[in-house]
Amino acid sequence: MKALVYRGPGKKEWIEVDKPQLQKPTDVIVKVVKTTICGTDLHILKGDVPAVTDGRILGHEGVGIVEEVGDSVTQFKKGDKVIISAVTACGSCYYCKKQLYAHCEDGGWILGHLIDGTQAEYVRIPHADNSLHRVPDGANDEALVMLSDILPTSFEIGTLSANVNPGDTVAIVGAGPIGLAAVLTAQFYSPAEIIMIDLDDNRLQAAKDLGATASINSGSENVLERIHELTGGRGVDVAMEAVGIPATFELCQKIISPGARIANIGVHGTKVDLHLEELWIKNISITTGLVSGYSTPLLLKTVESGKVQPEKLITHHFQMDDMLEAYEVFGNAAQEGTLKVIISND
């Protein structure tokens, strides 16, 4: 089969590799129908995730069809169409019993990280009964790819961790796919304002199209002055960091009001300063995290009903053999106007 293989920082190949085989009775093999590229994959390619080693197949999102089933799998059979969760969960360890599937003792985020991932024609899924979700009849496959990672990440690590409440003023720093997905999920709780902050006018417009009430271009506007104007001088109740660089986390610390919450969603590869000398007196909360995917069944219902339409985040389509071009377009998002790409195995 063909797969996208990591060859060290800055290096990748689309090459022929061996098709995965069942290794444990709880495994399934899935034929990938649709996959995508995540900002985390770009972090890996920059060398920010050293646990990813030469030869690893990247990717942790997708929709596919079950091809082979291990003897202990009870919830899925050959031919089932499934959503592949970015997080693998055994369902029985200490952390899984707390719904902290991200820290599963025999799983967590391993696809495209510690084991081969979904940017391939086939993928092995460990602990399939707890790591896959059946696709409802008639569902939009492309919308459901967004349920592998970005929608549950924005919801669990952004909206829920930040405890968004009715009437809150929410600022989201970073209008990439995760930040835009946070615009969608924050609206579940009726905040009064959602302010998107980014450098890209096209992405800021996309945020407003999805429900943001205001936007700030941090390259051409004074963010602190604009936040001051929009909040009557108080600062925001919630700041979500959705980029993963020191400057954006620093900005979140500056724009919050007393009693506010900072939810860090971004993947950080370098150290960031925490200004406790200024924050200790402000009664704030700071949360971090890796998605666990416990919210996927709930989010699937919202997508089925049409209440949430994550397919609006998709801007480009490719075939699997165009994987390297897809990476080029996704990696040059500002020039290409890219949000999420869909890569199909037709």
From TrEMBL:
The keyword Oxidoreductase applies. GO terms for molecular function: alcohol dehydrogenase (NAD+) activity; alcohol dehydrogenase (NADP+) activity; zinc ion binding. CDD domains: FDH_like_ADH2. Pfam families: ADH_N, ADH_zinc_N. Its cofactor is Zn(2+). Residues 8-343 form the Enoyl reductase (ER) domain. The gene is adh. Belongs to the zinc-containing alcohol dehydrogenase family. It comes from Staphylococcus intermedius NCTC 11048. It is an enzyme of class 1 (oxidoreductase). This is Zinc-binding alcohol dehydrogenase. Keywords: Metal-binding, Oxidoreductase, Zinc. Its EC number is 1.1.1.1, 1.1.1.2. SUPFAM superfamilies: GroES-like (SSF50129), NAD(P)-binding Rossmann-fold domains (SSF51735).
